[in-house]
Amino acid sequence: MSQEPLDQRAAEAMVRLLHEHRRGGGENDLAAVIHPDAEMRLLITYGTVVYGGATIISALESARRNAELYDATVRRFEWLDDQTVLAFGHARYALPSGGHAEGRVYWLDEFRDRLIWRAHVFMRETGARRAYEERFEERASPN
Q: Is 1 inside a domain boundary?
């Protein structure tokens, strides 16, 4: 499947909007950057995979209304290919069992049709890179 070239600066702004999104604004902007067929595993959804743009927006807004302490900052980007970026950041987030955690996080974001199609969070850089390699191998497979 051939993709049109992606404006990396615009794509990085979309990734920041998704991962740094704060309560009280940007819902329409956020909806505009998420692919209708998106798949995401995020801190704010406690690592549960959520499917579909509308479902993801709903889950994000619901979770963020109840997560006063969520705060994330994307610190840098590394483009792994022309449609996939590894974002390095820091986040403070609620834990499903109560309490919170804070530390480095890594988001692996993939684009389709110039929108964020997949976004998965990892606690370790090696996990994000391994997931990327596995997806790359799947795409290269002749089956």
A: no
